[in-house]
Automatic annotation (TrEMBL):
This is Bifunctional ligase/repressor BirA. Acts both as a biotin--[acetyl-CoA-carboxylase] ligase and a repressor. GO terms for molecular function: biotin--[biotin carboxyl-carrier protein] ligase activity. NCBIfam families: birA_ligase (TIGR00121). The lineage of its organism: Bacteria, Bacillati, Bacillota, Clostridia, Lachnospirales. Keywords: ATP-binding, Biotin, DNA-binding, Ligase, Nucleotide-binding, Repressor, Transcription, Transcription regulation.
Length: 326
């Protein structure tokens, strides 16, 4: 009920009377008063005026189950929500829930990770109180060879959500990072449990540097945050909900089409690799070319001096002299 009352307060154009809340949830004035006090204790500034009701004056940058739920407008993405103040890795927890039969669209959010995961076994820096750590569990009815495209679906959805909410020029670095001013602000890790011809579940983890104000020395040249680049604080709960809303839309378009054709052009518009030099890493045969964007299967199209074009899979490409962290 707390998430629903918070949502009502947020969406109200003026004061929301205690009686309106009582009628909406069939509870007593005392029950409403207790929820309002709980919200105040969590940092919400709520003005109470006799004969008028309640009005939110200011919201904290709170990330918890109620805060995220109060912003969610999705049909399924994130509606089954698990929040951990501290955990090892949201991907690990989402995979556990997947093994236990959790529903498609289950979202795991954490305030802090002790063993955050990056690609190729790397760790993801996960300090408390400033960034977004979340993983979504999916049960797609797709052949396993299409699962890698889900990483690109999430990258595009997250970029759109950031562009809409923060109005800041985020770009995609194919296939699984978001960058700002040549520095990384977001990483995505997709893991899958599958049989030869059947996907049991897919987990997509995403970490976003939101309100981080400083980084350890070893990361300061390669990482940045939305707050450092914009100079303004980010409402993390609202951004989480925004990513889920955009992801739900993009995922459904992807499933209907069976590929990335519904938004490949939009993806390429914000693909920082596009038109840039890349180096193809293949044992015994490394070569340079120019990126021409992705195809409908999510592969990077690389054009060579001899006029030929090659579709390259993730893990085979390096970007030369473009990103500080590559």
């Amino acid at each position: 009920m707390k998430a629903e009352i918070l949502k009502m307060l947020r969406e109200s154009e003026g004061y929301l009377s205690g009686q309106q809340i009582c009628d909406a949830f069939q509870v007593s004035r005392t029950a409403v008063w207790k929820v309002i006090n709980q919200l105040k204790e969590e940092g919400y500034q709520i003005e109470a005026v006799r004969n008028k009701g309640y009005r939110i004056v200011d919201c904290p940058d709170a990330v918890n189950k109620e805060a995220v739920k109060s912003y969610l407008k999705t049909a399924w993405a994130g509606q089954n929500l698990f929040y951990y103040e501290e955990t090892d890795s949201t991907n690990t927890q989402a995979k556990r829930l997947g093994e236990e039969g959790a529903a498609h669209g289950t979202l795991v959010v954490a305030g802090q990770q002790n063993a955050g995961k990056g690609r190729r076994g790397k760790s993801w820096s996960s300090p408390p109180g400033s960034s977004i750590y979340m993983s979504i569990l999916l049960r797609p009815e797709l052949p396993p060879d299409k699962a890698p495209m889900l990483t690109l679906v999430m990258a595009y959805a997250a970029a759109l959500a950031i562009l809409e909410q923060e109005d800041i020029g985020v770009k995609i670095k194919w296939p699984n990072d978001l960058v700002l001013n040549k520095k990384k602000i977001c990483g995505i890790l997709t893991e899958m449990s599958a049989e030869v011809d059947y996907i049991n579940y897919v987990v997509i983890g995403i970490g976003i540097n939101a309100n981080t104000e400083s980084f350890p020395e070893e990361l300061s040249e390669t990482a940045t945050s939305l707050r450092l680049e914009s100079g303004e604080s980010v409402c993390r709960a609202r951004l989480i909900a925004g990513v889920m809303e955009r992801f739900e839309q993009c995922y459904e378009e992807f499933v209907r089409a069976g590929d990335l054709s519904p938004f490949a052009a939009g993806y390429n518009d914000i693909l920082v690799n596009c038109g840039r030099e890349v180096r193809i890493l293949e044992p015994g045969r490394e070569r340079n070319g120019i990126s021409a964007g992705i195809d409908n299967g999510g592969r990077l199209l690389v054009e060579y001096e001899d006029g030929t074009t090659e579709a390259v899979f993730a893990g085979e490409v390096s970007v030369r002299g473009i990103y500080n962290y590559v």
